[in-house]
């Protein structure tokens, strides 16, 4: 189906898309405003980075990179 790429502050993540949907509706209290959002279901990651909380708390060190990225 394709891929989704997330550009995070600590690197790039890529996932294969299993399914994706786009939704559009009008805002109830302001009919002139349209709200649009996307939902995606992904398969296993193609490329990943460590979880953000590990980076912020200082638990991530360079030696762990291979373990997190496989």
Folded structure, characterized:
By secondary structure, the protein is mainly beta. Helix content is 14%, strand content 59%. It is built from two helices and three strands, in the order βββαα. It has helices spanning 52-56, 65-69; strands spanning 3-8, 11-27, 30-47. The chain has a three-stranded antiparallel sheet with strand order 1-2-3, with no helix packed on it. β2 and β3 (30-47) form a beta hairpin. The longest helix is centred in the C-terminal third of the chain and has 5 residues, at 52-56.
**Strand and helix order:** EEEHH
Distance from N terminus to C terminus (CA atoms, Å) equals 23 Å
State the major sheet.
3 strands, antiparallel
Helix content: 10-25%
Q: What percentage of the residues does DSSP assign to strands (E)?
A: over 45%
Radius of gyration: 17 Å
Strand order of the largest sheet: 1-2-3
How many H/I helical runs? 2
Tell how many strands the DSSP assignment holds. Answer: 3
Structural class: mainly beta
Question: If you average the pLDDT, what whole number results?
Answer: 78
Poorly predicted tracts of residues? none
**What is the overall silhouette?**
elongated
For this entry, give a set of tags:
single chain; mainly beta; 70 residues; 14% helix
SSE layout and pairings?
Layout: E1 3-8, E2 11-27, E3 30-47, H1 52-56, H2 65-69
Antiparallel strand pairs: 1-2, 2-3
Short description:
The protein has 70 residues and is mainly beta. The chain contains 2 helices and 3 strands; from the N terminus they run βββαα.
């Amino acid at each position: 189906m394709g891929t989704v790429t997330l550009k995070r502050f600590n690197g790039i993540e890529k996932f294969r898309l299993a399914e994706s949907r786009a939704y559009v509706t009008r805002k109830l209290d302001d009919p002139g405003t349209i709200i649009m959002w996307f939902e995606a279901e992904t398969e296993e990651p193609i490329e990943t980075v460590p979880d953000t909380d590990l980076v912020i708390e200082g638990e991530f060190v360079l030696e762990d990179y291979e373990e997190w990225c496989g």
